Structure prediction request, 94 residues.
Amino acid sequence: MAYEQTPHTAAKSHALSMENRTRLSLGGVEDVSGFDENLIVLSTAVGALNIRGEQLHIDRIDLDAGQLEVRGKISELSYDEPAPSGSLWTRLFG
Prediction:
């Protein structure tokens, strides 16, 4: 019996590092949906991320490498959870 190899796909990782709530470095960024001085909306390897604050600026962006750097007064980071799928009965009674 021949040994079959299955292709190995590396799981995308997501990391963030914040410095004094004024600098944020992100890895695993897939896309930036929108931004202004108070909100940056982006897609990461683990879901949508909203960055809220004041005077937010994107210092560096490299979507090929999945890197993003933000500076400004960062007040909130929140991940959006995907909407549950299936019928109401499936979600209730599992």
